[in-house]
Amino acid sequence: MTPLEKLYAADPDPVAYARGYLRRLATVLESLDLEEIARAAEALWRAREEGRRIFFIGNGGSAATASHFANDVGLGTRTDGAPFKALSLTDNNAVLTCIANDWGYDSVFVEQLRVHLEPGDLVVAISASGNSPNIIKAIDFAKERGNVTIGLTGFDGGELRKRAQLVIHVPTERGEYGAVEDAHMVLDHLISTFLTMRARKR
Asked: Cα dist. 151→19, 40, 70, 123, 168 in Å?
């Protein structure tokens, strides 16, 4: 049983469940490595300073996080200075279904990167398990091209934790998607607001 399943089994009252859920999330957030967060934020900052693009990828709930992250970094950070050129590769249904139909779902991100990825660009992969084949394929491709790769992971980190150059890992039990995806959204807002304030000070 996951921590949340144990929590509900112990007391199915909605107030008790809400209290336990929030406590569990607080514990997960407290476990994050702040140096990992700092290294990822610095990499995004360098991309802005060098005029490079930042590509976000993910599946399912992580696809929504990729879209949200690209929005917050690309538009939420707007200042009078240089922009963050952030894009999510999860958002064009025609492109995604074309690639999935013609090359297979494992290629939905790597085929977009073949078209758009340029030297110095970043790829940010978001995956709770860290084992999604389309994520790993895209990360391996970017690394082979010499691009910087960042992984946001959960559970034990999977292959993404091993292969991405920079990783922010959310340590949780396998299958504990809620806490991982909640933490990834917190990281979105933490990093994007930090980048916004740094940009305003320039």
From this structure: 30, 9, 15, 8, 6
* Domain extents in the chain: 1-30, 33-201
Separation between Cα atoms, residue 20 and residue 171, nearest integer Å: 18
Note the helical H segments in 129-176: 133-144, 158-163
Cα 11-15-17 angle, rounded to 5 deg: 50
At 118 the pLDDT is 97
Q: How far is CA 54 from CA 28, 51, 66, in A?
A: 27, 10, 11
pTM of the model: 0.95
The tokens for 174 are 């396998």
Task: Identify the CATH number of the domain defined by range 33-201.
Answer: 3.40.50.10490
DSSP string, 33-77: -HHHHHHHHHHHHHHHHTT-EEEEEESTHHHHHHHHHHHHHHTTT
pLDDT tens figures, 26-45: 999 999 999 999 999 999 99
Comparing CA positions, the residue from 159, 154, 187 lying closest to residue 173 is 154
